[in-house]
């Protein structure tokens, strides 16, 4: 049972490595080179490659399916606020802010490092 | 803030042509591959003995095959490329955009081996920050054998040259 204020257990994440990002590009289908090619990242104004947004949201997805029956997660979403750099272990935590028979919401994966 | 999109557009111009709103693209049928799903789940740290990585565990839990993680479909929709060709047509450099927002709605569980089709439409284009940031929203309906199984909504961010 989940109530307002319930904190879902955090999940182990990262560290985000270059090898992981290269494999994630192929596994996920997001081939944007800014995540896997340092030359492209620098040309775009970044210091280095950084994680796909769907890595951070992927961790949040894990928080949900670790708590709820995974086939019953009906909707999830988020806004990307900061990039997740290489070597980060972004903490993925969630707490319920609103709860009803049909919905429960709240969650955050924040930048680390 | 970082300059992501080197546009030659003048002040007041839009990088993204508004005529792209309403454009729709239908992907080829895509089969959800067990080995790719397993790698995706492994990279994100899903438990090795869980329904997303272990076939025996999935079947013991009543699934016909590995269960698809709830965040998997977004990258696959991007990879089908249908809508991205449309964006390139209107001058968006796809190596130079950021993911702004992503939402998933799941109507039916999906499993390895399922064949799905993405029907994606550009639903909005808008600017913020005095035109420095442009946002493009696209929505996808995901169908399996004609049945709606999931819906996606994504916002990409284009940052213009001269961003402070």
What is the gist of this entry?
The complex is a heterodimer of chains A (113) and B (164). Chain A has three helices and six strands, in the order E-H-H-H-E-E-E-E-E. By secondary structure, chain A is an alpha+beta fold.
Helix/strand order of chain A: EHHHEEEEE
Distance between the termini of chain A: 34 Å
- What percentage of the residues of chain B does DSSP assign to strands (E)? 25-35%
The largest interface is:
A-B, 41 and 41 residues
Radius of gyration computed on alpha carbons of chain B: 18 Å
Helix content of chain A: 25-40%
DSSP strand tally of chain A: 6
- Tell me the radius of gyration of chain A: 15 Å
Provide the succession of SSEs of chain B. Answer: EEHHHHEEEE
Total beta strand runs of chain B: 6
- The level of helicity of chain B is 10-25%
What does this structure look like?
The complex is a heterodimer of chains A (113) and B (164). With 113 residues, chain A is of the alpha+beta class. Chain B is α+β, with helices and mostly antiparallel strands and 164 residues long. Helices cover 20% and strands 32% of the residues of chain B. Chain B has four helices and six strands, in the order E-E-H-H-H-H-E-E-E-E. In chain B, strands 1, 2, 3, 4, 5 and 6 form a six-stranded antiparallel β-sheet that branches. In chain B, strand 5 and strand 6 form a beta hairpin. The N terminus of chain B is likely disordered. Classes of the chains: A alpha+beta (113), B alpha+beta (164).
Task: Furnish the topology, listing elements before pairings.
The complex is a heterodimer of chains A (113) and B (164).
Chain A (H helix, E strand, L loop, with lengths): L6 E5 L6 H11 L9 H6 L9 H15 L7 E5 L12 E4 L2 E2 L4 E2 L2 E2 L4
Antiparallel strand pairs in A: 1-3, 3-6, 4-5
Chain B lengths: L23 E3 L3 E2 L2 H10 L11 H6 L12 H8 L1 H8 L8 E9 L8 E14 L4 E12 L2 E13 L5
Antiparallel strand pairs in B: 1-4, 2-4, 3-6, 4-5, 5-6
